[in-house]
Structure formats: structure tokens, C-alpha cells
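Title: Comparing notes on inverse folding

I've been comparing how different people in this forum approach sequence design from structure. To keep things fair, I'm posting one structure and asking everyone to reply with a full sequence. Here's the target:
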């Protein structure tokens, strides 16, 4: 090999090889020198050592989650296996899509969270669907139950999971029995220690945060893939709606915050537009769109579906709809012709009457 020649011009190194080891799958990503430079950018000099960079391919994710009992707070889910990933909890909502901090027996709640790769040495097993979009091809189990997971990529690849659960009954506190002597002493202490009366200051009047609500007044139920138009969402504030837009914060889809370039927002209550390019990145099915404000939130859940008929294809290409009424034109023409005929008959009759009189 001649000194100063780029390695990529002389070597044929194989990338993307799979290796099975100790029940795990690894995929080769790149060859790099001791300084971390990719082999294709390394120039030949003296002896050098190239190292292969491997990524573990995740095909099975097992998660432990302690379902809270009534009155308890949430304990975050944890990974059951040692894989190069971590969990980030988005939020927990009740059946009305309100944030839940404590739980009621028998009610239904949704835990929304993501399993995110730690770095480039972790990949999820994927395959392309019929539209060429990568989808997760492995499995996810929560407490041994298989659940669905949606694959996506941001700074790192991740799996988005929406898990529904129902809290059990609260645990009863054990009753401690006390002796008659202890009860007697407790009563004597109570009778002896008479608390002094303290002046009570009236609590300041405040507007409870629960009185403020954000309501979606305009939003579509579905969006057909391939449509040129996006989705328009209008949110109103039940208190001082003119200040609604000043409280606007961010927009999330399925718990992931959108970049400002993925939507437009303007005043007039709060008017949001998600363009077609943003929606086309999402998979087919229902998606939760959350509009966050500094003192509340609003949500809507449109369904992205594939065009299923010729009408759908026509609708997604022709975005404007005619508003004129051009039906039954033939009937109007016949009526006009009939009116003219009646007028002619009346004129002839009047002429005959005048001739007789003269």
C-alpha cells in the first residue's frame, strides 16, 4: 500500500454484518482508527489499527411496572433486562385526558412513556412497511403482557408506548389495639391540656386553577394520507379568551414535543395548523395531539387513515369545494319558457277584444 493513499480507495471493508453472541444480536456500524476517524477518511501512513464499532440490536424489551393502588402515587416503570436504553415518562392521564397524580379504584388511566436508545451503540430491530416507513419488528412486554410500541427517531431512536391500567383497591391500615390504661391516660391528657384559642385569619380569595379550562372547538376527526391540506385546530379559553394565545406553550404528538417548524400558531383564541408534511411522518391510526398552555392543556385525537376509495383520492387532490347551487337548471329554463308563452297568449286576447270594441 502506498503511503498517503486513502484507505477507502484500496480496502474493501464489510459493514453491517450481524453477529449472535450470548443470546444477543450485534450489528457492525463502522471501522475507525485510534483517533475515532472513520476508515473511509483515513490516509495510509505507518502501521495503524482499525477497530470495528458494534451496535446491539434490540428485539425484546421487558418492562416492570408496579400498578398503583387507589390513593397511591405513580412509580415509574423500569427495564427488566440490561440493555443500552432508558425510560422517560411523558405523563399519566385519566379517561378525560387530565393529568393524574393520585388514582381511584376501578378507574382507567393511560401511562405514556418512551424507551430511548442511550447512544449510537443501540439500535431497535426494524423493518419497512408498505410505504417504506421503518416500524419496530420486535416485542415489548409489560409485566409479561405484550403491548404495542410505535418506532420513531429523534436525536436517538426510541419506542413510544401507551399503556392502559386500572388501579386496585387501597390497602387497609392495620388496627392497633390499646389497653384500658392507655386509653385512660390518653383521655386524662386530653382533658388536662386545653388548647388556647388562636385567632383565625381569613384565607385570601384566589381563583382556583381548576376553573380555567381550554376547549378544542374546531378539529377534524381524521386526516387522509396524501391529502395536500393539513389539520387546523382551534382552542378557546373559558376565562378571558382574548388572552388565550399569550398562555400558549408547545404542541405534542403522542407525548413528543414538535419543533416550531412542524406547525404554525397564531392568535384568535389559539389557532394551530399542522401541515401535511408533519402528519405524513406519522403512522396510520389514532394519534393524540396535546396543546400545552402555562396553566392548562387541551387535547384532540384525529385518526390518520389510508385512502380507501376513489372519492378519497379525488378529495385529497381537489382541496377546494364549490359552494354554488347549479342543480335543476333545466327546470328553471322550462319555467321561464312557460311564462313567456302565457304572456303572449294574454297579449293576443287583448288585441282581439280591442278589435271587437272598435
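Reply #1:
Here's my take.
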Amino acid at each position: 500500500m502506498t503511503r498517503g493513499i486513502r484507505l477507502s480507495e484500496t480496502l474493501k471493508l464489510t459493514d453491517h454484518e450481524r453477529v449472535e453472541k450470548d443470546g444477543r444480536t450485534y450489528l457492525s456500524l463502522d471501522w475507525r482508527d485510534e483517533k475515532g476517524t472513520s476508515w473511509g477518511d483515513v490516509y495510509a501512513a505507518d502501521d495503524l489499527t482499525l477497530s470495528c464499532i458494534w451496535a446491539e440490536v434490540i428485539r425484546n424489551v421487558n418492562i416492570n411496572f408496579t400498578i398503583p393502588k387507589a390513593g397511591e402515587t405513580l412509580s415509574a416503570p423500569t427495564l427488566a433486562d440490561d440493555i443500552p436504553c432508558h425510560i422517560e415518562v411523558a405523563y399519566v392521564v385519566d379517561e378525560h385526558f387530565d393529568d393524574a397524580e393520585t388514582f381511584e379504584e376501578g378507574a382507567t388511566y393511560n401511562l405514556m412513556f418512551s424507551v430511548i436508545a442511550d447512544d449510537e451503540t443501540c439500535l431497535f430491530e426494524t423493518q419497512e412497511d408498505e410505504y417504506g416507513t421503518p416500524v419496530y419488528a420486535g416485542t415489548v412486554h409489560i409485566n409479561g403482557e405484550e403491548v404495542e410500541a410505535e418506532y420513531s427517531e429523534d436525536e436517538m431512536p426510541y419506542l413510544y408506548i401507551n399503556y392502559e391500567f386500572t388501579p386496585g383497591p387501597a390497602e387497609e391500615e392495620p388496627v392497633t389495639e390499646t389497653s384500658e390504661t392507655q386509653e385512660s391516660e390518653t383521655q386524662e391528657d386530653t382533658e388536662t391540656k386545653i388548647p388556647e384559642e388562636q385567632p383565625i385569619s381569613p384565607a385570601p380569595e384566589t381563583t382556583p386553577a381548576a376553573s380555567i379550562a381550554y376547549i378544542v372547538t374546531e378539529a377534524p376527526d381524521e386526516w387522509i394520507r396524501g391529502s395536500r391540506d393539513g389539520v387546523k385546530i382551534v382552542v378557546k379559553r373559558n376565562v378571558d379568551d382574548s388572552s388565550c394565545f399569550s398562555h400558549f406553550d408547545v404542541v405534542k404528538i403522542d407525548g413528543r414535543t414538535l419543533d416550531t417548524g412542524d406547525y404554525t400558531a397564531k392568535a384568535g383564541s389559539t389557532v394551530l395548523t399542522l401541515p401535511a408534511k408533519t402528519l405524513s411522518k406519522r403512522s396510520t391510526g389514532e394519534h393524540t395531539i396535546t396543546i400545552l398552555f402555562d396553566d392548562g392543556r387541551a387535547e384532540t385525537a384525529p385518526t390518520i387513515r389510508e385512502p380507501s376509495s376513489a372519492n378519497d383520492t379525488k378529495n385529497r387532490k381537489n382541496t377546494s369545494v364549490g359552494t354554488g347551487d347549479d342543480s335543476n337548471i333545466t327546470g328553471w329554463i322550462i319555467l321561464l319558457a312557460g311564462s313567456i308563452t302565457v304572456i303572449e297568449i294574454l297579449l293576443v286576447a287583448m288585441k282581439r277584444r280591442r278589435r271587437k270594441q272598435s
